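Notebook entry, structure prediction.
Reason for the run: the old model in the group folder had no record of what sequence produced it. Starting over properly, with the input documented here first.
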Amino acid sequence: MHSPEHQINRLVPLVRVVDVEASVAFYSHVGFTVRDTAKYKDRLSWASLQSGDAEIMFEGTYGPSDPDHQRVQFYLYSHDLAALRDQLPAAGIDAGEINDGSPGPREEMRVTDPDGYVLMIAQID
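New structure, fully documented this time:
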């Protein structure tokens, strides 16, 4: 198998959690610090954390936690998102449109892997 010309450079899991503040507090005990946050109606609705080279993002969701049905989405980053998107159809991969990812990346696209996992691929400068 050959290596594609345009590649992913970074992967950050986005975990959907019931209480973003509780998750931030928990992960702070293993060395993660907050890099960025977003609020909705005065509650923390999204947070990006880092510990050394490790990164994780949390997004608030509704409903109880269910360990048998993890709510995880993967965030991947590319130095040339448009070029990466252009090369995917040749490999039989349906690449989504490039959209505004606010409050996160200014450009991102959605791709689904063979098992149905959603990959959000964002432009990294």
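Summary: The chain has two helices and seven strands.
The old model has been moved to the deprecated folder.
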